[in-house]
Amino acid sequence: QEQLVESGGGLVQSGGSLRLSCTASGFVFSVYDMRWYRQAPGKERELVASINTAGNSTNYAESVKGRFTISRDNAKKTVTLQMNSLKSEDTAVYYCSGQHFVYSDVTYWGRGTQVTVSS
Known about the structure:
By secondary structure, the protein is mainly β.
């Protein structure tokens, strides 16, 4: 069964750091572009960061550029999001998503992990 499981969320003070991880199982991880999204209460889900299959191309939302870093390890089937200099506005549920690099309608989602930044 195809699965993405996020971990690493929690409560952190403003200015602190967290590292989110997402582990895949049940599908060929290396042919999926991977993304991290987040959704804050009362807001729409937004794309935070993305990384291509090879891990050599990344993109970030303007709000997190310079603070967040996405990376992947295809051998371990994991994608991580290193979050530094966290702000209260980063508080959200963070979701991991994988989209097949050819068949874009094939997409998997994790259940999310809560990140809360206290000011």
